[in-house]
Specification:
BirA Bifunctional Protein, domain 2, single chain, five-stranded mixed β-barrel, RNA-binding, eight-stranded mixed β-sheet, about 30% helix, OB fold (Dihydrolipoamide Acetyltransferase, E2P)
Length: about 450
RNA sequence: UCCUCUGUAGCUCAGCGGUAGAGCGGGUGGCUGUUAACCACUAGGUCGUUGGUUCGAUCCCAACCGGAGGAGCCA
């Protein structure tokens, strides 16, 4: 089957002449003597306008029954459009109906609510919005690999089924086998011990960084948290670079460079789709993305942030106090009202951070950092890892963890330990930031949230 | 897990203590180089479920179920 993609046709300076195009009908306007078909093949946001004169081969069988949602094959000439609104149009010489759409095709030409679109997740990529979202998602995945590969990072596939529990990362899904309706436990466990779906590849990533220097992971992660918000999903994708011979400063530099790289690439490679978001989803999107691309980010220590929030005069629902976690409202104030740009907060009190983060010399804080962006909040969380054997052991004990569960992790500090650091970036949150789409369910093809695992 | 909002036609919503309406979508016909086309006609609903109050409930009350938003936790 040979076809020309719509994106190739519409980008032409001169007519490509005779082409065959296949796609889905977005809308059709009939008159007595001819029909206009808006054809979309997903290769770009724009449709190709097809002009089909009554009487051409396939008009009765191909064009007339082709209502919204139908798939068609059109052969014809690309000619300059007589009408307003498009440069090129396809003057059809032959139309073939590939697949009719039944009368109850749910996508209308008019806008639908996001809730309804979620209920038809198998059809929503055929809409302008979701087509654009998922083209951008694909491009950003590609760009992430490019960013790291160009910098000499090695891509590591950390396991999805894991026996390790990356402490502090939340509730986990158990992986079990069944005997009929009975879950096999104890001696019967498939792996001989309890296993889970991974909540993070970080600990395994550290082992590879302590061999290949600079590595990254990029894969699905799972959290069994019962959280109902627009920013949480039970299954999501995460990018986790880990670097040997690296401290917190270089870690923050990398996180910021990565955000800038991705935003810059999106602005260039996804201009049409971002323009659509800017018009219909978030009027300030392009301005904000250009700002992020061109300006430097703010950096502030946790202690400075607490002082700043206390002195702000702003009324918060939750108290600002050294030693307490920054609440969403506090993060939002910093990044949306005070600095009005992405902000990295670092050096958090050790009590509110997990065991693997490196203790600072002040004895009170750890070398942790969160990169906050306007509208989303935390998009990156990272730290320099504790590389000193005795300090790590003490941390495990302080957190009430059994060292025997982490023997392989502790080994890294026994055999040629090195300063190292890394971070985790939520892929869907990045996409929310880049597209302006407000709900995480709308930037992942088939979202899994508590109580919902359709499709 | 907690708090708030919400559930009427395929979709988006209006409505009212006396058993329902619009726009879009669908169907039929017409018309026009149209472009969220236009015009006319037409078919669609046990008003989320179960109880209760009432002469009478889609409307008031309760519980449950579903959806959404926020908090916490995090990415």
């Amino acid at each position: 089957m040979f076809r020309t993609r719509v994106v190739e046709i519409l980008g032409n300076e001169t007519s490509p002449g005779k082409v065959t195009v296949m796609g889905w009908v977005r809308t059709k306007r009939d008159s007595k003597a001819f029909s206009f078909l808006e054809l979309n093949d997903g290769s770009c946001l724009a449709n190709l306008q097809v002009v089909a004169d009554a009487g051409i081969p396939g008009y009765e069988e191909g064009v007339m029954p082709a209502r919204t949602g139908a798939s068609v094959k059109v052969e014809g000439m690309i000619v300059p459009s007589q009408g307003q609104g498009q440069r090129w149009e396809l003057q059809a010489v032959k139309v073939e109906l590939l697949g009719a759409a039944e009368e109850d095709y749910p996508l209308q030409k008019k806008g639908h609510s996001m809730e309804f679109m979620r209920s038809i997740a198998h059809l929503r990529p055929r809409s302008n919005l979701f087509g654009a979202v998922f083209r951008v998602r694909s491009r950003m995945a590609y760009s992430i690999h490019r960013f790291f590969q160009e910098r000499g990072f090695v891509y590591v596939h950390t396991p999805i089924i894991t026996a390790s529990d990356c402490e502090g990362a939340g509730e986990m899904f158990r992986v079990v086998t069944m005997d009929g309706e009975v879950v096999k436990t104890g001696e019967e466990e498939f792996f001989g011990k309890p296993t889970y779906l991974t909540v993070s590849g970080q600990l395994e990533g550290e082992t590879f960084a302590c061999a290949l220097s600079d590595i990254y992971t990029f894969g699905p992660t799972f959290r069994a948290e019962n959280s109902h918000t627009s920013r949480h999903a039970s299954e999501f994708w995460m990018i986790e670079p880990e670097m040997a011979f690296c401290d917190l400063l270089a870690d923050m530099d990398l996180a910021e460079a990565m955000i800038k790289f991705l935003v810059s690439d999106a602005l260039e490679a996804c201009a049409e789709d971002l323009g659509f978001f800017n018009q219909f989803v978030d009027k300030g999107l392009l301005e904000r993305l250009k700002f992020v691309r061109d300006r430097s980010f703010e950096r502030i220590t946790y202690t400075e942030a607490v002082d700043l929030l206390k002195a702000s005069g702003e009324k918060f629902e939750y108290p600002v106090e050294y030693g307490l976690n920054l609440q969403s409202e506090h993060e939002r104030y910093l990044t949306e009202k005070h600095f009005r740009c992405p902000t990295t907060v670092y050096n958090y009190p050790k009590e509110i951070k997990p065991f693997y983060m490196r203790k600072n010399d002040d004895g009170k804080t750890v070398a942790a950092m969160d990169l906050l962006v306007p509208g989303i909040g935390e998009i990156v969380g990272g730290s320099q890892r504790e590389e000193r054997l005795e300090v790590l052991r003490a941390n495990l004990a302080e957190h009430g963890l059994d060292e025997s569960h982490y023997d392989w992790y502790v080994d890294l500090r026994r055999y040629g330990t090195v300063p190292h650091a890394g971070f985790g970036l939520g892929f869907e949150r990045l996409l929310m930031f880049v597209t302006g789409v407000a709900n995480i369910r709308d930037v992942i093809p088939f979202p899994r949230t508590p109580g919902a695992a359709d499709f």
